[in-house]
Specification:
heterotrimer, A alpha/beta, B mainly alpha, C mainly alpha, B: mainly alpha, MetI-like fold, about 0% strand, C: MetI-like fold, about 80% helix, globular
Chain lengths: ~325, ~300, ~290
């Protein structure tokens, strides 16, 4: 039966290939599980660290990258993706891993600056010449203004946009939880759609020409310019916005098993090194290093910001209050 | 019980000849082996994983399950999902019938190339389909810009969901109808015509009843495929709660909150509905096949 | 009745023919042709060099390789299962056949995201077999095995569905004749059954292949998205798009569409030969049964 033999041979060949792939995966290296737009940053950072590690420890190190939606990534880590380190765009994602016992509960204090080596903020991106003269958050609730943002409940960018508007309203004279919710409700009424993600919101705004203003990370504006041209839009810095932090953490369970703790620690520590900080600035992420921030001042205009911890008491409170089922977002969409 | 047997004369003949024989002993070898293989494979690959889903969902009590599955948003999403899937399947049934008819009956240059195109939705990743459709049907897209002056908005409205679902489920109706239309024997039409039936009457009274079971199968397969679709829809739907939010998006939303149990509960609800629908169609097929072959039904008893 | 009158009665008038063709082809053009064109226009938006660069990227290449590897592993399983299931269902009568067919159909109806989730619930670290697998250092999820499993799940119905009606129409007499002439079971299968179903089988393989290569949702959940390692081509397309690399994304998508078109072209050839063969068969071997 020649067919049967061929089939068995084939299966054996595939099995061999499989083991080959498996063996290659277990080399001396790190797996960095990250959110999707972090690719540019780590594409430049990894060679920097490899050079540094070669110089200091005399070892070649292989760094593998995984990028996808932030929450999806930490779910994968909880389900057994062998990440040595996680580099996320939202603390609630790392909190989830802490809850599952994969990451230390005090991960935010194991590195400086709330374990966030760089920051960004939410800005308003408007069309060339700012035809609707949008200057601040309160311009976005005016009738006839269309706001484009990613889904506020299901995406990281969307949640930051939501909290930025909420925090702004709260900090206005006489602002309270009720007025903030009303403010955000009016803003969301001006949203003709909720995009599937940050990138999709950009495409909708830039390519499909829908909406008057796009809510986005300051750092993504540069990516938008690369894709659609710099003169096509303007960045408007609101009077107050949210400081977005990008927490990093070592996945204890994995590094202990693989024996990569020292390497993982060095990898994350190096993010705060001058070279690491400068790399952040070059990728339009605000470095923590004050001197560098000054050096790149033209790129990072000063803006008044608040953190999630200051206004919302941390993500562990903000997330259930606003984004879980029945939270403030859902309340805005209850049938009356 | 008989499956989706074709109402073919030759099959009827063999059945009439061999059915009594095969009741005493099976002539062909391999029944045990192949059925065993099939059952083991299906159990491992389909039943075991799906029962894992059921186990997870059963962590909720019935009351909790009901609460997850019956919220206001959930109901709105069922209405949108099933409504859009139904519309998409209906569009596919109508146009799919015409497409299948044209592709089978009318020879024209380039027919094979166009025939090959029908399977494209299987091969294109759903996200690419969604992004492309949204761009095409947006107000400034190739198609959207011609519709917007007419006051028709498709992208980022529930209509967009219908367009995406029509795209991804398009092959099912065409592909189930094609072989059946090919099988129609010209004698039947000629006989009807010679008895004085008009073309329209022939179609309605003679052709349609023969095609109908396959049309129904195609419709249902398209419908069930459309219900589960997520990847393409989120890019074109607009995702507004209560207006354009589909049930798979709610499942994702539960996962984003790390609520795996809630997600599995919703998934179970959708799966049960799909299963019942598919079972109904297969039973209907069986019924239709038997109705067309009284001889076979008699020989089995 | 004259031949002309019969033809008029069994064919549509010219205007109706034209109308049906315009509607049918217009529908296909609008829903399939234009999106396909749009993919290629986006892919070449920055010109040929950008397209070539996008495709020569190492990660894109390894994604293509992985996609092809998965399809190659999945298809043999599909063939064995499809033939076995079709043999049991088409050639024998037994209780619960409708239920069995429904089970085979079920993967069509399960949301791809749920398919991925289901395998995580079984093999993930928090899943049913997760702890056991971890203790034995066996990697299933976020590695090739799980990606193959979900693809098997997704493509399971195609070949069986293709073969069942075909084998039912063919009946059992040829096989029974072979047996009565003293052929062994395997001999009968390879000499009689396989030649009869080979084109249908290939048709099923091609459809399953298109689906296997294009699957996104289910694979996405269990892949882990490790660059150059567990990213299939559809996943890579999404990642590139999300990173503001539209040309790269649509270039990769166009490769998928091309892979699909190649398989579709192969399918058309197969179909043509199949029809050819059936015609020959019905013309020479089975004339008495046709009446």
């Amino acid at each position: 039966m020649p067919m049967l033999q061929k089939f068995i041979l084939f299966v054996a060949g595939v099995a061999a290939a499989w083991f080959a792939v498996g063996a290659q995966a277990d080399g001396n290296g790190l797996l960095n599980v990250s959110y999707d737009v972090a690719r540019d940053f780590y594409k430049d950072y990894n060679p920097l660290f490899q050079k540094h590690w070669q110089a200091t420890a005399g070892q070649k190190v292989e760094i593998r990258q995984s990028h996808a939606g932030s929450s999806k990534q930490v779910r994968a880590v909880a389900d057994g993706l062998d990440a040595d380190v996680v580099t996320m765009n939202q603390a609630s994602d790392v909190d989830f891993l802490a809850e599952k016992g994969l990451v230390a509960r005090d991960y935010a204090r194991r590195f400086p600056n709330n374990a966030s080596p760089y920051t960004s903020t939410m800005v308003l991106i408007v069309r060339k010449g700012n035809p609707k003269a949008l200057k601040d958050w309160n311009d976005l609730i005016k009738p006839g203004v269309q706001v484009i943002l990613p889904h506020p409940k299901n995406t990281g960018n969307g949640r930051y946009s939501y909290l930025a508007a909420w925090g702004y309203a709260l900090r206005q004279p006489g602002g309270n939880e009720r007025s903030a919710q009303e403010f955000v409700g009016r803003l969301l009424k001006n949203a003709p759609l909720f995009a599937a993600g940050g990138r999709d919101a950009t495409t909708t705004f830039m390519q499909r020409r829908i909406g008057d203003v796009l809510l986005s990370f300051e750092s993504e504006a540069e990516l938008i310019a690369r894709e659609f041209g710099k003169g096509e839009f303007e960045i408007v810095y609101p009077s107050l916005s949210i400081l977005t932090e990008f927490p990093v953490a070592i996945v204890d369970k994995v590094v202990d098993k693989k024996g990569t703790r020292k390497l993982a620690q060095a990898y994350l520590d190096y993010l705060w090194s001058p070279a690491g900080q400068e790399n952040a600035a070059e990728n339009y992420l605000r470095p923590r290093d004050a001197a560098l921030l000054k050096k790149y001042a033209s790129q990072f205009p000063p803006i008044r910001t608040f953190t999630v911890d200051e206004v919302f008491g941390g993500w562990s409170k903000a997330f259930p209050t606003h984004f879980k089922d029945g939270g403030t977002f859902d309340q805005l969409y209850q049938l009356k | 019980m008989r499956g989706r047997a074709h109402p073919q004369p030759c099959h009827r003949l063999t059945d009439a000849m061999f059915a009594p024989l095969s009741r005493r002993r099976r002539v062909l070898p391999g029944f045990g082996l192949t059925l065993g293989c099939t059952l083991v494979y299906l159990s491992l690959l389909i039943l075991l994983p799906l029962s894992g889903l059921a186990v997870k969902a059963s962590q909720l009590s019935f009351a909790e399950l009901w609460e997850v599955a019956s919220g206001e948003r959930a109901w709105a999403s069922y209405r949108i999902t099933f409504g859009a899937a139904f519309l998409a399947a209906t569009i596919n049934a109508c146009f799919g019938l015409i497409v299948a008819w044209v592709l089978v009956r009318y020879p024209f240059p380039g027919r094979r190339a166009i025939d090959a195109l029908v399977d494209l939705p299987f091969a294109l990743p759903t996200a690419v389909a969604g992004i492309t459709l949204a761009t095409l049907y947006a107000g400034n897209g190739w198609i959207g810009r011609h519709l917007e002056p007419l006051g028709v908005k498709i992208a980022f409205t529930p209509l967009g969901i219908v367009v995406a679902l029509t795209f991804i489920s398009l092959p099912f109706v065409v592909r189930t109808l094609q072989p059946v239309i090919e099988d129609i024997e010209p004698e039947v039409e000629e006989a009807a015509a010679s008895l004085g039936a008009s073309r329209w009457q022939t179609f309605l009274r003679v052709l349609l009843p023969g095609i109908f079971p396959a049309l129904l199968t195609g419709f249902t397969l398209a419908f069930s495929r459309a219900i589960g679709e997520y990847g393409s829809v989120i890019f074109i739907a607009g995702n507004m709660p209560l207006i354009s939010e589909i049930t798979p998006l709610l499942i994702i939303s539960k996962l984003e909150q790390y609520d795996v149990v809630g997600a599995t509960a919703l998934a179970m609800v959708m799966l049960s509905i799909s299963f019942v629908m598919l079972l109904a169609v297969n039973a209907l097929q069986w019924w239709a096949a038997n109705r067309h072959r009284p001889g076979a039904a008699g020989s089995g008893r | 009745m004259s031949a002309r009158a019969t033809r008029r009665a069994t064919g549509e008038p010219l205007w109706l023919r034209a109308l049906l063709m315009v509607i049918g082809l217009g529908f296909l053009l609008l829903f399939l042709g234009v999106p396909l064109l749009a993919v290629f226009v986006e892919a070449f938006a920055a010109g040929w060099p950008a397209y070539r660069d996008a495709l020569s990227d190492g990660e894109t290449r390894s994604a293509i390789a992985l996609t092809v590897l998965i399809a190659l592993v999945v298809l043999p399983f599909n063939v064995v299962f499809g033939v076995a299931a079709a043999w049991a269902i088409a050639k024998f009568d037994f209780r619960g056949k409708s239920l069995l067919i429904t089970l085979i159909d079920l993967p069509f109806a399960v949301s791809p995201v749920v398919v991925g989730l289901v395998f995580l619930l079984l093999f993930g670290a928090q899943g049913l077999f997760g702890p056991w697998l971890a203790a034995h250092e066996i990697k299933v999820v976020f590695a090739l095995p799980a990606m193959i499993l979900v693809t098997l799940f997704i493509t399971c119905p195609f070949i069986a569905r293709e073969l069942i009606p075909l084998m039912q129409v063919q009946g059992k007499d040829e096989e029974e004749a072979a047996l009565s002439l003293g052929a062994g079971a395997w001999q009968m299968f390879f000499r009689v059954t396989l030649p009869n179903i080979k084109w249908g089988l290939l048709y099923g393989v091609i459809l399953a292949n298109a689906r296997a290569m294009g699957e996104f949702g289910a694979v996405s959940v269990v892949s882990g998205h490790i660059r150059g390692e567990t990213n299939t081509l559809p996943l890579h397309v999404e990642i590139l798009y999300n990173e503001y690399n539209a040309v790269g994304a649509f270039a990769a998508a166009s490769v998928l569409a091309l892979l699909a078109l190649v398989t579709l072209a192969a399918k058309t050839i197969v179909e043509w030969r199949m029809r050819h063969e059936t015609q020959r068969l019905t013309a020479s071997d089975l004339p008495p049964e046709k009446g």
